[in-house]
ABC transporter ATP-binding protein (Deinococcus koreensis), 259 residues
Amino acid sequence: MLEIQNITKTYGSFQALRGVSLQAPEGEVFGLLGPNGAGKTTLLRILATLLLPTSGTVRVNGLDVLREPEAVRRIVGVVNGGMGLPARLTGREVLRSFAGLYGLTQAQTEARIAELDERLELGRTLDVRAGEYSSGMKQKVVIARSVIHDPAVLILDEAASGLDIFARRTLLDFVHATRAPGRLTLYSTHVMSEAEEVCDRVAILHEGQLRTVGRIPDILADTGEPSLERAFFTLIRGGPVGDGPIQKGQSQRGGPRAV
Ligand SMILES: Nc1ncnc2c1ncn2[C@@H]1O[C@H](COP(=O)(O)OP(=O)(O)OP(=O)(O)O)[C@@H](O)[C@H]1O
């Protein structure tokens, strides 16, 4: 479903991604974890055709992101920071205009808006102008807009940030429900409990390189840690957290596990 081969990205003389390769199968929610500045947004923007890599290749559903960006955009939905909404439009108008861009008929559009209203609990947000939204209302409409065309691949970059616990719960349930044959959701977060809840597999990125890729139970077993948060620190710091014993998996530091 997603194949990333040796991606690098250089900003000026700074190497933000230093040879990232991974594969993510369909039918799963795949988590991308890493500290600030690890390169998560850079990688996700490359996958979403919003940024060119310096080198390497990415295929989404067999489509080359560099050679066939238009085709990739039709099957990908993306939410990342700083996405704006036109202040004078209501949520419903925003969704209708995006549905039009993707060629949905009026009947398809209204059915999809009704479905997203239910799944994301949009409620009155649909009929309020975006200029009057709270940050949580805005984020819900941004998410609804990103999936109006029912994309096979959904990229959510820190999508829960700024949401209260009710909206966060709605989002996590929504993400959970995206797990289906022929679908892939990429979910980046700093919140380990979110990753533990919704992700089947995670990649941990640090300083532009993968520290590990795998199923969460396997990562816990390999690091000998009881939680993803402790495993995360162990992998990022290159040593055990607190006074915990050094466990198996240490030999893998600095290189990713096979998926
Ligand atoms: N346009 C840019 N120009 C120069 N450097 C950049 C640019 N965008 C990102 N960087 C740098 O690349 C590195 C990776 O940034 P990126 O935003 O991908 O990290 P991140 O893992 O998403 O971080 P965060 O969790 O803080 O959002 C950082 O050191 C950042 O300063």
Q: What stands out?
A: The longest helix spans residues 106-120. The CA atoms of residues 38 and 207 lie 5 Å apart. The chain is about 35% helix and 25% strand.
